[in-house]
C-alpha cells in the first residue's frame, strides 16, 4: 500500500484504498435504505388503491366483500367430494340393512346329555340375526354315538319342540337383543 499525501490536508496521510472502501460501503448502505423505503411506499400505495376500490364498490372504506349466500343443499356435481360422500352414505344405509339379516349373534350352552359321559361334550348353539331369525344347532354326544340336530328359528321361536338347553341359548340371545 502506498500512502498518498493530499494537498488539501497538509500533514495528513490517507490510505487511498481505505477511503474508497468506506465510501462504497456507505453508498451501498444508502442504496439498501433507499430500496427499503421505495418498497414500503409501493406497499402503502397498493393498500390505498385497494381501500379506494373497496370504498367505491361498497360505499364504505372499511367494508369488506361479503360472500354470496349458498343454497341449503346444492346438488353435488358427479365426481366431487360431496357427491362421493352422499353416495357412500346411501351405500352405508344399504349395508346396515343387509347386516341386520346376517347371522351374527351366537350363544352356546354346553352340558352333559348323559350321566355316563363327563366334560360337557354335548352342546346347543343358537345363531340368529337382528330380527331373531336363524337356527339352533344341537350336538348330543354319548360313548356310543353322536347326533346333531338343526331347528329353524323365526322371531325367537321355533315350530319344533326345543330342549331346555336350546331354550337357554335362545333366551340368552333374546335378552341381548332387548338391551340398547
Automatic annotation (TrEMBL):
Residues 56-82, 156-180 are annotated as: Disordered. It comes from the Bacteria. It holds the Pfam family DUF4446. Keywords: Membrane, Transmembrane, Transmembrane helix. InterPro entries: DUF4446 (IPR027981). The keyword Cell membrane does not apply. This is DUF4446 family protein. The chain crosses the membrane at residues 26-46. Signal peptide: none annotated. Residues 171-180 have a biased composition (Basic and acidic residues).
